[in-house]
Design a protein that fits this description.
This is PD(D/E)XK endonuclease domain-containing protein. Pfam families: PDDEXK_5. By secondary structure, this protein is of the alpha/beta class. The protein has 2 domains: about 100 residues, no CATH class; about 50 residues, no CATH class. The chain is about 25% helix and about 20% strand. The protein contains 5 helices and 8 strands; from the N terminus they run E-E-E-E-E-E-E-E-H-H-H-H-H. Helix 3 crosses helix 4. The termini are far apart.
């Protein structure tokens, strides 16, 4: 426990670390009698001093926020959340934020195709190239050639609207799959 003095008041601070950004509202310990757990009482301390490693910041929420989560990135869901910047000083009250305050638009489900193409890890073959490949060799082999799974190749075919050979096609061809 730490003690802080600010504006003529003395505050008791419980120092914590969280990579999950959840403020634990209980303490755990072990002794010769086993493992124990006790919920914090409102008079145990005044504020958490929580280190958030993903943004390298310490925040100071009141003990009232025990059990709550603190976001460091805007969510991609409509659920209200507590924002880390609201806790940079000793904080007794904080508003729950919404995704709208951060410019996130969840109302449209349109996909920006240009942005998706730029973020792909593997460049897809063109429709014509893939259409030719699926009739030359099995999807498992095409996947290996591109460094992806056969499921990925199937998804590419579905996205392009390409018909693949029917199940058992390669077995009937008498070809061995080169692995």
């Amino acid at each position: 426990m730490l003690i802080a003095y600010k504006d003529g008041k003395c505050y008791r601070i419980q120092a914590k670390y969280t990579s999950t950004r959840i403020l634990k509202n209980k303490t755990n310990w072990a002794d010769k009698n086993g493992c124990h757990e006790r919920k914090y009482n409102s008079d145990d301390f005044d504020f958490y001093g929580v280190y958030l490693p993903d943004i390298n910041q310490v925040v100071y929420p009141s003990i009232k926020f025990g059990g709550c989560g603190i976001r460091t990135k805007p969510p991609k869901s409509p659920n209200p959340f507590y924002w880390w910047e609201d806790f940079t000083d000793f904080t007794e009250e904080a508003p729950k934020r919404t995704y709208k305050e951060f410019g996130v638009d969840l109302t449209t489900r349109k996909v920006n195709l240009e942005a998706r193409v730029l973020t792909r890890k593997v460049v897809r073959p063109s429709k014509e190239e893939l259409e030719k490949l699926v009739w030359e060799k099995p999807t498992a082999q095409i996947g290996k050639d591109f460094g992806v799974s056969d499921k990925s190749v199937e998804k590419w075919c579905k996205a392009y609207g390409i018909d693949k050979p029917p199940r058992g096609y390669w077995a009937k061809q008498g070809r061995a799959v080169d692995c």
